[in-house]
Model the fold of this input.
Amino acid sequence: MAGALRAARRRPLELCALTLRLIGAGFPRTGTKSLQLALEQLLGGRCYHMHEVFANLDHVPIWRRALRGDPPDWNRFLANYVATVDWPASAFWRELGDANPEAIVVLTQRDDASTWWRSADRTILEVARLDAFPKYGDWLELFHELLRERIGERWDDASTAMTAYERHNEDVRNAIAPGRLVEWRPEDGWAPICRALEVAVPPAPFPHVNTTAEWAQQSEEAEVK
Done:
């Protein structure tokens, strides 16, 4: 397995057009936006993040069908991407891993479940609590389906959500071989990712974006407008 992974990481990008190089398996609010930017810099290709859904609303019904047991041909659907992080893709880490057996799997996480909950509670769950979000069509329905499927009907309950977060992380650890799995926190920066991909650490600082403070500021600015 290790030899195959090393060969895949050294393979020219153009020969990997129909396979993913890296699959993010962590919950949202675990540094996924920062990691997206870092991976696009390291791999020279696009990384699928929830923001890709906002830009491609025709993907919403595809993800909703997948949640109901009717997935797309994953490598065809994601043929324009070299990596995936964040929901909805990370909700399908197992399926994407099976479809791309040479890809690295990165479990993004926070220091503990309570740290993750505080971030999610003040950001993405504020959106989930809205009755409608017409700007993005049926996206809110997709988000609610993800929350119910991956956390539970009581997704807005702190204890339920934190238990689901911890259970999810353990499921990933138990399913992915140690030589393939990278556990990563935002403060880890470049080193673990570059080591797994066998690429040099860039001289620029690791990107840290979409923090809770930035989210709050953007929300305030939107309300003013």
